[in-house]
């Protein structure tokens, strides 16, 4: 534990300051495929009863028309966030008919690419922009990769906590910087510590050691055959986060610098504006139809696939990087979590409690800059863990030494423990965060208790990843359908759906420029500027 962390813990343990820890916000985004009763990808449009995928605040689609995305409101306590996520699931199931939602991160058996429908958002310019962007993703990465699902964990600490740290550490007087800049740098520092330690999350929560043969579609791989339709690696934790998942040649060399917000933004903007020859050969249109928004390395900044992102809530007409430039970092989005197939909503409360303690440790611990060589080491540790995390005796690189994953993981649990206790001190439900640490410690001491080991055991028993995914999906469907929403909750969701459909209609009727001009204006918009 660094001197900086020790001082910050003492400061926040004061009775006057401890309540600040309960004022941060937590939000969840859960992606999930709609499937039919046989466990195949649903071929139906996004159900209109759920509302508009373009404008609904809590129920939308991601890449494919069948890839639902549930978005919770941000709450101070992860328990309430998960309650809201549960309610979204219950409403969705009340409108899905015979369909279900897939229980795993890696897709069900997929049809050929040309039979996977890209998400449709209506005829408005902004709706078409979202659709054409996804056409570009299909060209660049293939449709199967875009059907992978995950849990995104949005996390923030209150502005008053950052203000307290800034004043207490004398930074306000020494550098005369606005709070916005201090807060942005603190979140970027949090991201650096996340890079150092995120391999631990993949060991503890990775839940995709197997996948359907249909996912790879003839791509080269080093996976082993578990059965006629299932591939796996014996010690893998998360094939979703391996090089079999989110990757392509254009992004392979893209490593945005996270030693400052400015360098991060500069790296992304270079990628958004830098032509990439293979994409230029394809062009932006085919037979007069838009097929991608640009021929640059990234069509838009959100195309950068990362395990974590600095974020800011955007305003109407604003791009994500514009929001960061103009108003600084507001929260971070953790994107590496697999769907937990043993949990109906895809994530457990204990996982959320641990994440809160882990991310608070990343936020308060000292976080030196990361050199390019150190960045490669962190990436290699992550890659080892997702493919071999449960291998007996597996080592990771720490500094100039190779250390056993188990030894380092247990050390990290003890480093996080004071943060868990601090969170419990301000929480009125007892030692819930420290109890979560005990659950995670047990997984480190016995790899068979990890989700990835449990999934692999179940798949072996059933003989197929598809059978396991369908069985879990059926169990979860029964769980939600047996306990419908209260009438007031259902009325609220019905109202949200109706409002969203009306909002989409207004947007479509108010467009007054041609789509080509709309795309040109979007691509040429000033990405960073002063407000």
UniProtKB/TrEMBL annotation:
Q: EC number(s)?
A: 6.3.2.2
Q: Which residues form the Glutamate--cysteine ligase domain?
A: 10-383
* Source species, domain of life: Bacteria
State the top-level EC class. ligase
Biological process, per Gene Ontology: glutathione biosynthetic process
Give GO cellular component annotations, separated by semicolons.
cytosol
Listed pathway(s): Sulfur metabolism; glutathione biosynthesis; glutathione from L-cysteine and L-glutamate: step 1/2
Per its record, the protein catalyses: L-cysteine + L-glutamate + ATP = gamma-L-glutamyl-L-cysteine + ADP + phosphate + H(+)
Keyword field: ATP-binding, Glutathione biosynthesis, Ligase, Nucleotide-binding
Q: Which GO terms describe its molecular function?
A: ATP binding; glutamate-cysteine ligase activity; metal ion binding
Q: Which HAMAP family match?
A: Glu_cys_ligase (MF_00578)
Similarity-based family? Belongs to the glutamate--cysteine ligase type 1 family. Type 1 subfamily.
Please give the NCBIfam families that the UniProt record associates with this protein. glu_cys_ligase
This chain belongs to the protein called: Glutamate--cysteine ligase
Per the UniProt record, the source organism is: Massilia horti
State which gene encodes it: gshA
């Amino acid at each position: 534990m660094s001197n900086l962390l020790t001082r910050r813990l003492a400061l926040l343990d004061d009775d006057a300051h401890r309540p600040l820890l309960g004022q941060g916000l937590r939000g969840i985004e859960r992606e999930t495929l709609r499937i039919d009763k046989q466990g195949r990808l649903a071929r139906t449009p996004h159900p209109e009863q759920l509302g508009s995928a373009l404008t609904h605040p809590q129920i939308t689609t991601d890449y494919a028309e069948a890839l639902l995305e549930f978005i919770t409101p941000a709450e101070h306590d992860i328990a309430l966030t998960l309650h809201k996520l549960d309610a979204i699931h219950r409403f969705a199931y009340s409108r899905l008919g015979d369909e279900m939602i897939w229980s795993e991160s890696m897709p069900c058996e997929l049809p050929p690419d040309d039979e996977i429908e890209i998400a449709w958002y209506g005829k408005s310019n902004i709706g078409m922009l979202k659709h054409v962007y996804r056409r570009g993703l299909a060209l660049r990465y293939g449709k199967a990769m875009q059907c992978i699902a995950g849990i995104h964990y949005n996390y923030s600490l209150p502005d008053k906590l950052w203000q307290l740290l800034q004043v207490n550490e004398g930074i306000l007087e020494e550098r005369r910087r606005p709070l916005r800049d201090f807060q942005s740098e603190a979140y970027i520092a949090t991201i650096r510590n996340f890079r150092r330690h995120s391999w631990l999350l993949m060991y503890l929560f990775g839940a995709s050691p197997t996948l359907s043969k249909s996912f790879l579609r003839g791509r080269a791989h080093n996976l082993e055959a578990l059965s006629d339709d299932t591939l796996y690696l014996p010690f893998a934790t998360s094939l979703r986060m391996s090089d079999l998942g989110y990757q392509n040649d254009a992004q392979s060399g893209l490593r945005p610098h996270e030693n400052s917000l400015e360098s991060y933004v500069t790296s992304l903007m270079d990628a958004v504006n830098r032509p990439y020859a293979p994409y230029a050969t394809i062009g932006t249109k085919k037979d007069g139809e838009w097929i991608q928004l640009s021929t640059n390395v990234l069509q838009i900044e959100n195309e950068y696939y990362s395990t974590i992102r600095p974020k800011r809530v955007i305003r109407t007409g604003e791009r994500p990087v514009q929001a960061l430039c103009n108003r600084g970092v507001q929260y971070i989005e953790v994107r590496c979590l697999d769907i937990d197939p043993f949990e109906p909503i895809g994530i457990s409360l204990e996982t959320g409690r641990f994440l809160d303690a882990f991310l608070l440790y990343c936020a308060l611990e000292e976080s030196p800059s990361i050199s390019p060589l150190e960045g490669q080491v962190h990436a290699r540790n992550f890659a080892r863990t997702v493919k071999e995390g449960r291998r007996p005796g597996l080592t990771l690189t720490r500094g100039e030494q190779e250390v056993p994953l188990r030894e380092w993981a247990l050390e990290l649990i003890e480093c996080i423990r004071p943060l868990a206790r601090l969170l419990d001190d301000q929480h009125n439900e007892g030692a819930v965060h420290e109890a979560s640490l005990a659950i995670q410690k047990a997984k480190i001491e016995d790899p068979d208790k990890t989700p990835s080991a449990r999934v692999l055991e179940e798949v072996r028993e059933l003989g197929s990843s598809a059978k396991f995914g369908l069985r879990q999906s059926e169990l979860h469907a029964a769980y939600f359908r047996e306990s419908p929403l209260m009438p007031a909750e259902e009325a609220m969701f019905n109202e949200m759906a109706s409002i969203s459909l009306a909002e989409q209609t207004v947007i479509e009727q108010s467009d007054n420029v041609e789509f080509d001009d709309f795309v040109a204006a979007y691509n040429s918009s000033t990405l960073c500027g002063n407000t």
